[in-house]
User: Fold these one by one.
Assistant:
Number 1:
Amino acid sequence: MTNSRILAARQSVRFIGSLLFWTPVTLLSLLLIYNTIPYFSFSQDFIFIQERSLLFHNNLYSASFYIHIAAGATCIGTSLIQFSSYILKKRRKVHVIAGRIYVFVVLALAAPTGLYMSFFAKGSFYERALFLFMAMFWFFTTARGLSTALKKNFLSHKNWMIRSYAMAMTAVTFRIYHILFFLFDWDHLENYEISLWISVLGNMFIAEWVIYRKSRSYLKTFVN
């Protein structure tokens, strides 16, 4: 009886922890998708577009921007259901279809346009290098997630997709840090740069921590 109570208590703690994590993640992800929609009015009144008005005269950059934000919203939307145990067990086909959409969008649209736009990113050389790294790492981790799934190595598939998802979610976490630092009246450029670095490195750390906790041999997760 005692063991069953302990097991039930652990399950309750896991459920509450999962709820506390995924509820804000889901809400913030949906908010980002919602805030992306107005850009497709193709108005020039958005601050980002006004700041980079000269770049938007370049058709390739302009097209890359709109493809990138549409692709990013699609990735974040489809990835929300990818880590659901219920869908994995009861609606596996939904997981597979959403996963295929996610992988295609990252590899064909989101990462390549992000790579191109990284050369024109706001900030110093280091911020542009960081955007370049993000695009390449996102592409690589997603490609590894696809290859391990095709080999039916689903544990490694999950690990690589966690890393991929961490890159996708920088679009969300960056905005959270940016708003928080704005409330502390930080300089705009300094806020932008620090929010970017914390978002990328923080997301990578969380992803590796999650993988480490569930791995028997953590270092092997980089080669499998």
Note: Residues 17-222 form one domain.
Number 2:
Amino acid sequence: MGSMKKLQEQLNKELKSLKEGLSGKKDGKGNPIQPGQKGMSEKLARLAAQQEALRSEMKKYQDELNEQGIKDGTGGMNEAMKQMEQTEKDLVNKRILQETINRQEQILTRMLESEKAELQREQEEKRKSTEAKNQKYSNPSSDFQYNKQKLQSVELLKSVQPAYNYFYKNKINGYFLKFER
């Protein structure tokens, strides 16, 4: 996009100098430029070809953006391409008016806005999802101490069993089995 912008700026400068030349100002050698001058048609044809090449490059760029699924910045590009087409018609018809110069400035402005939008898209942070992991963030030494104390208390309860009948002994052992898990 940056190279297209530079080419558009160069084209704008050439159009301004041609407009000044057509309005009776002098060329680089100090000679007045006449509207019917021999090289004028060639210059206008060359500028029209450059504008058409820029428009086709912008169309390719817009197609690439559409393939990537980016459509939010293409509205200004469509308008710029329409304005480029109108400028081409003016150049082919050998009409360089102030309106043409203003249109070229608008095209350049739209290209700058498009470039700014592109930079923002590149800098936009993408959110990434991560898989949830079962991680235990604690002090393992405290877990070991707790388990050690629990085991000691269970052993104490098992060792101090009074003389119960068979039914109650089974219930107590079942309780301790559930407790150990």
Note: The two ends are 67 Å apart (CA to CA).
Number 3:
Amino acid sequence: MAPVVYLHIGSPKTGTTYVQDVLWNNRETLEADGVLLPGHYRYARVQAVRDLLKWNPDEGEQPETWPRLVGEVNRWEGRSVVISQEFLCWATDEQIKIVVDSFPESTVRVVLTVRDVARLVPAQWQTAMRQRNTWTLDEYADGVAGTGDGKRGKRLTRHFWRRHDYGPILQRWVNAVGVDNVCVVTLPASGSDPEELWRRFCLATDIDPATTTPGEASHESLGAASAELMRRLNELPEVKELTIQEYHKSVNGALSRRVLGKRRSREPSLTLPEAHREWAERESDRVIDDIMAVGVRVIGDLEDLRQRTSSSDAVAPEDLPTAELLAAALDGLAGLATEHATLVKKLKKREDKPRGRKKQVAEPLQRGGLAELRRVWRRRKKR
């Protein structure tokens, strides 16, 4: 049983992937220092939290992934456990109670990483484009600002604020674990030392940064051209017909993450549309006031949540020149072709190296054809 369980609950697009990369890359070092990252493989925590949040208590027992993770935590005899999963930021009061009650003999402490709204809106939009949505950046910004039209506008409002309305998110967790056990970590302003976020996170979770190797910040976000390419791709009937699993593997995984993500430095950056800059300034004031009103500890500076003037001109992705979209599309095709060729080679190697029962059949066939296979089977029957 660990004395302290730290829950890093997000929110998304606030450096969570970078923090999770550093945690996992230093897993052995952290365990030697008494800090457990539960899960027998990297994404076990993702699956466990996702399954828990989808679970309806009226429909039977909890999905086994969550109790398995909890069991590992409760058997740990080190000084602490860190569970980092951004889905937890939208947990309901009932779900939060289930999570906290899962660790009855440990103190549960909650860490929320936060970011300024001006950077969050375009960052969250491009993520939505990797989840088969088709809103333009302007439409999304309108929805976030509450000026979108009808049901679509309300949907966009909910899509953003259920992840980033920090005051209510913090209050739900404070109600469950107490104000002294919740803290906020602000994402440093653009241009800051890339390792500053890691140092702040270490302070929040009682990790010694001197024992870890932060490494380079990961950038899985897309540039403007690639994000717009994904949006247009999502509009095609062939893509709409893909299952969630097929889309995740082939479009989001292969195309977006492993191919288009590498183009980010060669594309225009995504920025908040000019028409929403004044709104973002007002919203920053509200968000800061909400965090202060909850009264939690802040690591970093709440001034980091104020809008900074971007060095990049605002770009409307849907208005980008055709040549830029074509360049992204060609890179995408080349990357997918290369990945397909690599996959074919791997499958060929597997076929050439039979295992188990397949091996029992393949080796006689290779030696003498079907007649040899029959002789082998007859000898085995006699035994």
Note: Strands lie at 4-8, 35-36, 80-84, 107-114, 182-186, 297-299.
Number 4:
Amino acid sequence: MSEDARTPDVPGDPGAAATPAAVTLRHADWQHDRDVIQAIRRSVFVEEQGIPESEEWDAADESCHFVLALTAKCDAVGTGRLQPTGKIGRIAVLPQYRCRGIGGAIVRHLVNQATELGLDQVYLHAQTAALDFYERLGFRAEGPEFDEVGIPHRRMRRRTEQRDEHEAGRHGHKEHPLDAR
């Protein structure tokens, strides 16, 4: 599967305003968190969106930076990844936790992580249904629509200088609550 930023968290505001204060984000890595990352992605992409399992997993997972969204009970409800090239992808939020700003928080976290890694821009392949979602997060579409895993997509890009104070500095970098504003 290509490394697109499929996000069924499209409806609702991508900002933190609707995110429950009990949800936290933390860095994750493939070696230690593989099972929970796979469970979320399998639920969203394979079961819900019908993407073949063989298309979901790729060698890039081993070199990516990951983030997990966790409830107060430490249940993982969302994930996303950042490749060393600056490509954001595999943004997934479980259905019962959507429309709460979790998907937007995951994307902002990955953009800020790219900034910390010294990248001056990030890009993604967005499902066309998610274009508005990513535009509200500072991404701009470029190039024509294309098919990826049977779903129409567009490439989108954003400079990392658009740092989000919600994540940067105020809460540290390991784990932080998503405050409601």
Note: The longest strand covers residues 140-148.
